[in-house]
Specification:
The protein is built from 15 helices and 14 strands. The chain is an alpha/beta fold and 398 residues long. An 8-stranded mixed β-sheet has the order 3-4-2-1-5-6-7-8.
């Protein structure tokens, strides 16, 4: 089976969409299917294409235009041209507004099945953008199959157009993301790097080093991903400040803080909270994340809205206690008090109290249950088989 896979992000792009697209591409490739990935990029001149093989996946990136409509035209024409060369059996898109629209239109034009997957922001935010709404509706109404990774997104999508939407949760490689002993060598490297950076900024390197977790005596609150407003940046920082006043803790941000207003707020927070102990690692390759999870004592994901966040699943697979907000697909994963904890959206006091509770209590039962949840319900095999089942229903010869 040959699949044209369309996404607006793909590794090394940052974010859950890129990670999920790569995961599906590799799952299908490992099952013996041929995948052609098509993704726009601002790193190439408009309309220019570049194709390379990435772990068995043939990835074609093409330069995006300043005008979205011109980018969509290029995307459509590229799919049509490549179909003439190698004849795709199926077109699948991750994300509704642009990728989903192009995939659905190309599928109808070429008379081949199209599958569109709702990932989160596409139904929760893009539908309120007049420039994207028509694309969303076209994909919902005309794709041969629509899937999503969270049950709440099914309800939201059906409010726009009532049709069958298939739930396919994200899967996690539990052999890669698993409990492991704290990586002290990595911890020392992160500490020294951060201390060096701080030497040129708000404190000298020796003081910075003292304020960072050089032993098991200092607890670590962790967040993984791009920290921004949607992910609860303000709530996380303000709650962390409350915790840090009661007991010294480090906030480890494995990833980056989004530039713009989010970075401005973050910098102002550090200036007004000189005793804060915050480490921002910068982008970390996905394959290296388990070692960073090993440093975390309490994993926090206080999103305002979400799809099915990979980081929550990964942290649970690594046997970490997760504190999250009951939004998006998180409610399909966490049972409050059994395999993790919920706090209300934008609840600074609730989050700080829960972090203190987790850091100062035995979490062995919660952590064991968290990993068992992922092993039993959110595996790569289940994700692959669910997608293959959709293709089979569409009459594609597997």
């Amino acid at each position: 089976m040959k699949i044209a896979l369309l996404s607006e992000k793909y590794t090394p792009d940052i974010g859950g969409l890129a990670i999920s697209t790569e995961r599906l591409a590799h799952l299908l490739t490992s099952a013996g299917h041929q995948i052609r990935l098509f993704v726009p990029t601002s790193n190439l001149p408009a309309s220019e294409t570049h194709t390379l093989n990435s772990n068995g996946v043939k990835v074609t990136r093409f330069g995006a235009h300043k005008r979205v409509d011109n980018t969509l035209v290029d995307w459509f024409e590229l799919i049509v041209a490549e179909h003439e060369k190698e004849s795709f059996d199926l077109i699948q898109a991750y994300f509704l507004p642009q990728a989903g629209f192009v995939a659905t239109y190309a599928g109808k034009y070429l008379n081949i099945p199209s599958v569109v997957s709702i990932r989160g922001n596409d139904i929760e935010r893009a539908t309120f953008d007049p420039s994207k709404f028509s694309h969303v509706m076209y994909a919902l109404q005309n794709a041969n199959a629509v899937t999503t990774n969270a049950s709440v997104l099914i309800k939201k999508a059906k409010a726009f157009f009532d049709r069958e939407i298939i739930l396919i949760p994200n899967g996690i490689d539990t052999n890669h993301f698993k409990p492991m002993k704290r990586n002290d060598l990595l911890a020392s490297h992160v500490i020294l790097s951060e201390a060096k950076d701080l030497g040129d900024n708000r404190r000298d390197s020796s003081v910075g080093a003292k304020h960072l977790p050089q032993s098991d005596t200092l607890s670590v609150i962790g967040f993984v991903g791009e920290l921004r407003g949607k992910k609860g940046l303000q709530t996380l920082l303000l709650a962390y400040a409350q915790v840090n006043k009661k007991q010294p803790v480090t906030l480890l941000i494995v990833g980056e803080v989004r530039q713009g207003e989010d970075k401005k707020f973050f910098d102002e927070f550090q200036t007004t909270n000189p005793d804060s102990r915050i480490i921002v690692t910068g982008h970390i390759p996905h394959k290296d994340l388990p070692a960073y999870y090993s440093l975390i004592d309490a994993f926090v994901h206080p999103s305002l809205r979400d799809g099915m966040p990979n980081a929550v699943l990964e942290a649970m697979a690594c046997g970490k206690t997760v504190i999250a907000t009951p939004v998006g697909g998180v409610v399909d994963v966490i049972e409050d008090g059994k395999n993790g904890y919920f706090v209300n959206v934008n609840d600074v006091d609730g989050l700080s109290n829960k972090m203190l509770e987790v850091l100062n209590s035995n979490q062995e039962t919660i952590q064991k249950s968290a990993r068992e949840t992922i092993i039993n319900q959110f595996t790569l095999e289940k994700e692959l088989n669910a997608n293959l089942s959709v293709y089979k229903k569409l009459g594609v010869n597997l």
